[in-house]
Amino acid sequence: MQPTLTAQIDGISKCARYAFGPNIQRMCGPDMQRQLGSYIDAHTADPGLSRILEQFQTLHPYLETIAHANHIADPFDVRVVEAYWLGNELLERIPPKTFYAHMVDKLRLKAKTSSKSFEELSTKLPLGARMHHSFHVFNVYKRTGHHEILHTLQSMDTCRISWGKVTHVVGPRITVDRQPLLIDGHRLYLGPAESVNVTRRLDDDWTFENLQIGDYISMHWGMPCEIITPRNVHWLSHYTQKHLALANTTL
To answer: Which parts of the chain are beta strand (E)?
Structure first.
């Protein structure tokens, strides 16, 4: 399968919107927040933006592995980018042994974590783990960006890609109904939806130009990423719940 030019551009632009939230907080990726934000605001994608995104040490290896396993040449193909951040059928075609090799060889998690932690992680692969962002957030307890510290409930909740139904829009301010990540003893779960305010970037008009009440949007590190479809919500919810269940087996 060869990506079209449109698929490449759309994939790079989509990826930038999800990468920007943690990058502007200097959680991961290169120290190029201004440049990354400028690309998003201008709605442009070129090799310069690709080079910025290739410097995300956890994100880019995931895209490479998902693309390779699905015989897609470009890791920024929009289908690959969607698979990693939101989820789609591509993830179902990746065998556990490929995911295992990715963790060992590309992310070097076996060398970075304790034997017990890596064994717990690897036993989840044949139980249904997929190469979705939520598996890494909920099951790799030590962050793999610039701050190699343990996740907290709050950091997991903001690092996962969440979704919310739009209930109110005033200028850049968007109010959504969103389920928070909660913990009860040794069980992580999504609680009842609550009203949350997020603010879109003023210069990024095109992303939310047609936003309507009742639409769903995705969010990452407190920033709205894009309007998503019911199909996207289905996959995102599916992988979020699947990987929460796997996390709960070792909490």
So the answer is: 162-170, 173-178, 181-184, 187-190, 194-199, 216-220, 223-228
One-letter amino acid for residue 206 of the chain: W
pTM reported for the whole predicted model: 0.92
Nearest to 165 by CA among 208, 217, 212: 217
What amino acid occupies position 165? K
157, 169, 170: which is closest to 219 by C-alpha?
157
Average pLDDT estimate for 13-36: 93
Tell me 142's DSSP state: B
Q: What is d(CA 222, CA 220) in angstroms, rounded to the nearest whole number?
A: 5
The pair of three-digit structure tokens given for residue 17, joined into one six-digit string? 């919107």
Give residue 91's identity as a one-letter amino acid code: L
Position 143 confidence tier, pLDDT thresholds 50, 70, 90: low
- Which residue, 117, 126, 121, 53, is CA-closest to 84? 53
For residue 145, pLDDT over 70 is answered with no
Residues 6+ apart with CB under 8 A from 92: 130
Alpha-carbon gap, residue 224 to 139, rounded angstroms: 24
- In sequence order, the β-bridge partners of residue 220 are 223
pLDDT by residue (tens digit) across 63-118? 999 999 999 999 999 999 999 999 999 999 999 999 999 999 999 999 988 899 99
Average pLDDT over residues 2-28: 81
Phi and psi at residue 7, to the nearest 5°: -65, -35
Question: If phi over 0 gives left and psi between -120 and 50 gives alpha, with beta otherwise, what is residue 223?
Answer: beta
Nearest in space to 198 (alpha carbons), one of 238, 225, 179:
225
d(CA 9, CA 29): 20
Facing residues of 189 across strands?
A: 182
